[in-house]
Amino acid sequence: MSASLPTNLEKGTSLWKDAWHRLFQNKLAVLGLFTVLFIFAACFIGGPIMHWMDIDPNKQSLADKFAGPSGEHLLGTDQLGRDFLVRILDGGQISLLIALLATLATVTIGIIYGGIAGYVGGRLGNTMMRIVDGLLAMPFLIVVILFREITKPRIELIGQFLIDQWEWNRDLVLRFSNILPLLVAIAAFGWLTMARIVRTQTASLAQQEFVEAARSLGISHTRILFRHIVPNMLGPIIIYATLTIPSFILYEATLSFLGLGIEPPNSSWGTLIKEGANYLETKTAMILFPSILFSLTLFAFNFLGDGLRDALDPKAAKD
Predict the structure, then answer these.
(1) pTM across the whole model
(2) 24 lies in a domain?
């Protein structure tokens, strides 16, 4: 007679399910997550909807400058009579797009460079990291400004070529050729910290038994690194990427505020805050609204990043 199996077996779980459960127990992290989702929806869905409704963020109407909130202009207009709400959402698109693309680029470069340095080790790995240390010793913002000024003329030439020879949409090309110099400059030097984090994690994981087993099976070094080691350090990578996004938003806003970032007629939160600072005493709303949204985004990403850190590395959170 066969023994009957128990019917009250508990379902298994996974590290990622446990992490999600811990994340949603953190009220500040959940608030940050939903705030981030709301801001992204407002900028990347609400903005295009207003474009579709024929509300141009760059359309000027000097007769309506500094108009108050109304049914036509929910947040009023700026010094050139442009709809202020649409310009805030349009500026949010650029600020968030630069931060996301720069973070994606820095994470990719950092994983490849730091992973190779940590896996190879020895003299080559140490030399690679000394290069990183040397670059980290340089003042980040100054280097980014110089690199932007070097790349900007070349990118503008490429954009003009696409307009003249390939007949690409002029407004779209000019918009992206305005974004790319700043994006390339931030991404070119933003991967250094990620490389150090990945190098440390890779050097530790490379000594584990599962890596030795993969080597004994004759699996290639590239496959071991990117199919076995990198997936095991996704936690620190996700945490750092989440905390990097607000840093890059802040860098973009700082450069745009100094007049070295996004140029008119395009807008970003940095340029809007700069324009609002010129009318600080007379039209406080011009600096108040973009500053609130800008600060709210930074706080939300930081709360979310802290929550992810606690969820993915509970031992460190207890320490």
Answers:
(1) 0.85
(2) no
